[in-house]
Specification:
This protein is mostly helical. The protein has a single domain, classed as Arc Repressor Mutant (Orthogonal Bundle), CATH 1.10.1220.160. A two-stranded antiparallel ribbon has the order 1-2. The chain starts with a strand and ends with a helix.
């Protein structure tokens, strides 16, 4: 996984989450979103995503010093869901989880502050 781009819809949702919570960095919000999606037992729905938005970050920017942990998480989830954990499949599943998690956070009326985000994590 080299570069991460999000769809225009996800960018708009990230702007909303950023405004609500006051979290300044996209990568921090994206980490929360990814983990929220992983906590959901169902597989994310397959979908084609146009990644034409202006938000792009490297894998290292997304994962920070925990690159190995995030990579292990997505590969483990692939295996759990019966998906080949190859680089290509893991990258595709990562994008699906990221976008699903962003949608979950943006659509949750309780995520209006950092405290609401923490409560969501605790209840997951």
């Amino acid at each position: 996984m080299e570069s991460i781009r999000v769809s225009k819809q996800a960018r708009d949702q990230l702007v909303t989450i950023k405004r609500r919570t006051g979290i300044e960095n996209w990568n921090v919000i994206c980490r929360w979103a990814f983990c929220v999606s992983l906590a959901e037992p169902a597989k994310p729905r397959e979908q084609k995503m146009a990644t034409e938005s202006a938000i792009e970050m490297t894998w290292h920017t997304f994962a920070g010093e925990n690159e190995g942990i995030y990579e292990a998480l997505i590969r483990h989830r692939c295996r759990q869901d019966g998906i080949d954990p190859s680089n290509e499949s893991a990258a595709a599943q990562f994008r699906l989880h990221l976008h699903r998690g962003i949608s979950y956070l943006a659509g949750d009326p309780k995520v209006t502050t950092i405290g609401g985000l923490i409560q969501k994590a605790i209840s997951a």
